[in-house]
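Form 7-S
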Amino acid sequence: MDKGNVLLTLARSAIAGRLGMAAAFTPPDTAWLNEPRASFVTLHKNGALRGCIGSLAAHRPLGEDVAANAVAAAFHDPRFAPLAADEFAAIDIEVSVLSVPEKISFSDENELLCLLRPHIDGLILSYGNQRGTFLPQVWQQLPQPTQFLAHLKQKAGLSPDFWHPDIEISRYTVEAFSEKSEETT
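Output:
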């Protein structure tokens, strides 16, 4: 099994197990699955978002992180009711494995906008206790850097036109695997 198939099967198996469905999957004993990595698991149903939960910092082995985030996306995303057993077959799962975030240095919002790499960068915005992130896949819905940043501010609980010199932005990339496309993005 390749990396994508292992991670997707692991995520689906974790959700199935939580639903009480027989889904025994023993992942291969590979070093990459045991390395601490951060991941996000995104669920879609009929093309619409159905849950998305993840980790921004590596704090457990990748296999554990994917399984835990899959269960959290299915049952603990506060935007959605917990996944029902009759929805299970209709969901598509995407697993994103994150690189280590790196802080971006900029002097103002215009410079930041020029430094963004659409369809490549995932961003973490922090200001005081406010924090939000968008995976690189969000560029598909928000292709303009100004849009992307404005919506990220809103996700962090700030107004879309908010700016302060103390805003911190970090970027990361992902290796994404999707059941729907069955390809790496």
